[in-house]
UniProtKB/TrEMBL annotation:
Biological processes, Gene Ontology terms: histidyl-tRNA aminoacylation
Entry keyword annotation includes S-adenosyl-L-methionine: no
Designated gene of the protein: hisS
The family this protein is said to belong to: Belongs to the class-II aminoacyl-tRNA synthetase family.
UniProt-listed NCBIfam families: hisS
Protein name: Histidine--tRNA ligase
EC number: 6.1.1.21
InterPro entries recorded: aa-tRNA-synth_II, aa-tRNA-synth_II/BPL/LPL, Anticodon-bd, Anticodon-bd_dom_sf, His-tRNA-ligase, HisRS-like_core, HisRS/HisZ, HisRS_anticodon
Lineage: Bacteria, Bacillati, Actinomycetota, Actinomycetes, Jiangellales
Amino acid sequence: MFRAPKGTYDLVSPRAEAILAVREAMAEPLRRAGFGYIETPSFEETQLFVRGVGESTDVVTKEMYTFTTRGGDDVTLRPEGTAPVLRAALENGLHRGALPVKLWYSGSYYRYERPQKGRYRHFSQVGAEVLGTEDPASDAELIVLAADAYRELGLENVRIVINSLGSDESRPAYRAALQEFLGTLELDEDTARRAELNPLRVLDDKRPEIQAALADAPVITEFLSAGDRAHHDVVRTRLADAGLDFEDDPRLVRGLDYYTRTLFEFVHDGLGAQSAVGGGGRYDGLSELIGGPRLPAVGWALGVDRTLLAMEAEGLPLPGKTGVDVYAVPLGDEAARTLFGVVSQLRRAGVRADIAVGGRGLKGAMKAADRSGARHAVVLGERDLAEGVAQVKDLQTGEQESVALDQVFKRLTT
Ligand code: AMP
């Protein structure tokens, strides 16, 4: 027997419907805020991610599904959505129209990670990007919209953690100070190399001994330029105005290199090690990194799989509707023909309806009706047909009534 590849899993009902409902709940606040939908291919030229995400990141060095096509092209299954969406926006000239461009998307992403609960090699995100503005109000808007999505799903324990990584005005001085500090520590070879290449990465090292050694490391907050500080202050004020609680974490860094200024993460403490249910930030330099014009932007990606796990951790019922409202039980060919018409008509009128097939007997078909979750069963036997009626049974109360065949539709739609 074949099995799903390592680090992947199948979604079957009712969790499959729940995933759809989670995606929908994440998209709804974005639609309400005027975001347009965008879809890009599942794979891109490898260099897009190498340049965009950053050569020294774990994503690029260890986690990409990269291959050469039969035609000799070097492509990579997308490990994230921001670089592809920005590439698509530039290619389609969206940046030459009215700014900002507000886009949302939903899809599968691929990272060759060590699988564990909440961390998969194939996972699902809903993302949002605001392209073409430096206004900190857009950073705050995105954070509020994500918080709205989590709230609408009923989640109560999502924490918002924010930081500023500064811009080119602040980062070089901080980088140098951090590098100097890291130089005083006894680091293993790998970590020492990372400290050379990309010292901010070291802050993201989760090993307790490294975290302990970093206790006295300089924090970015002390190095922010006046402009970077003013930007960050507006973001914080807007969040407070919107009534959102958030925490400042001057050590927050994320696994992608393109972030500038605002950085944020949505954390759920019921998930164990993989506690981030979403995250994002500002990436004012990314467009230029991938060969485009200057196009300041901000965005986030919310993890759909982990958000569903968070809902389960909070004991929330699975979202998303399964089953039907009406289940038709025909006994005999003629009845099957008649009820086929009734069920089609009900569906067209927006009623969720199903019908027993395969000439099932009454007992088996009524079991299926119960399993379907339907409130009403419509039973049509030969005697009913002769009398021009059907039996409409309320599956909750057990009450049953004879309804004239031409009144069944009306009875079930009013
Ligand atoms: P990132 O693109 O790394 O900023 O991730 C954004 C969100 O996607 C994270 O907060 C997670 O919720 C989710 N995510 C990232 N990687 C994985 C993964 N390997 N498996 C499941 N969810 C993931």
